[in-house]
């Protein structure tokens, strides 16, 4: 507020000084009105155009940070979970070939995979031993899930947030059961449903992630291809 008053007073003083020197009120009025006439355009430029440019820059920065988060999730946890869950899936062979993404995949082929997954019904079946191992793995990596969920950039991507919550919920369900070796069949079926939800969500996000890498970061896409969690012989080493 004080700064605005100072600017206004400074303008009045300069106009007064101009009149004192040149004694030309007509000239002051012409150029004063001329300058005022351009104020709306200047406001438009500053508040709309420049603001939009700054917002675009901020959105781009958020997308880049989010991509790093998603990449970290799959590198540290997501890929391993997809490999594990696909082993639980009795129907997985129906989509194994579809999920064998190739380097020459284009937008149309990614869309076909997404459409196939919409009609695909996974069939999760787990043993008590597998549940014990899964509980141990998720408990050990719970901190990573919490850290990603707490990151403000995660909120900018609702589907990814939902995927994290599905995975976190599965972790909580398993942790709540102290002795998994004596669970009734009905409870195991409930856990299988939780696994299936997380499995389907993570798979969808993985397809989105791979498509984004293909478009924006070809070198990262190359590594992600070699680490495909759905391939039996996946290896980061080129030539294997």
What would your notes on this structure say?
With 240 residues, the protein is mostly helical. The protein folds into two domains: 2-37; 70-226, no CATH class. The protein is 74% helix and 0% strand. It contains nine helices and no strands. The longest helix is centred in the first third of the chain and has 50 residues, at 39-88. The chain starts with a helix and ends in a 14-residue tail after the last helix. The mean pLDDT is 84.
Q: Fraction of residues in helices?
A: over 70%
The average pLDDT value, as a whole number, equals 84
The helix count comes to: 9
- The poorly predicted ranges are none
What form results from the Cα inertia axes? elongated
- The succession of helices and strands, N to C, reads HHHHHHHHH
Question: Tally of extended strands?
Answer: 0
* Largest sheet report: none
Number of domains: 2
How large a portion of the residues is in β-strands, by DSSP E?
under 5%
Please give the alpha-carbon distance between the first and last residues.
68 Å
Structural class: mainly alpha
How many whole angstroms does the radius of gyration measure?
Answer: 29 Å
What's this model, at a glance?
With 240 residues, the protein is mostly helical.
């Amino acid at each position: 507020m004080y700064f605005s008053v100072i600017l206004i007073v400074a303008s009045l003083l300069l106009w007064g000084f101009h009149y004192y020197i040149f004694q030309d009120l007509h000239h002051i009025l012409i150029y004063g009105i001329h300058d005022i006439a351009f104020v709306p355009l200047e406001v438009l430029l500053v508040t709309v155009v420049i603001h939009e440019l700054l917002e675009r820059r901020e959105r781009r920065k958020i997308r880049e940070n989010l991509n790093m988060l998603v990449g970290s999730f799959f590198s540290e946890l997501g890929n391993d979970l997809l490999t594990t869950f696909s082993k639980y899936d009795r129907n997985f062979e129906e989509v194994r070939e579809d999920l064998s993404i190739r380097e020459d995949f284009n937008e149309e082929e990614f869309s076909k995979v997404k459409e196939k997954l919409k009609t695909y019904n996974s069939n999760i079946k787990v043993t008590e031993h597998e549940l014990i191992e899964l509980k141990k793995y998720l408990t050990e990596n719970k901190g990573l899930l919490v850290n990603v969920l707490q990151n403000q950039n995660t909120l900018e991507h609702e589907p990814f947030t939902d995927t994290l919550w599905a995975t976190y919920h599965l972790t909580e369900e398993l942790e709540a059961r102290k002795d998994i070796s004596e669970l009734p069949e009905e409870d195991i079926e409930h856990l299988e449903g939780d696994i299936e939800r997380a499995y389907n969500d993570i798979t969808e996000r993985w397809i989105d992630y791979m498509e984004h890498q293909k478009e924006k970061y070809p070198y990262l896409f190359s590594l992600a291809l070699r680490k495909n969690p759905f391939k039996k012989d996946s290896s980061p080493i080129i030539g294997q």
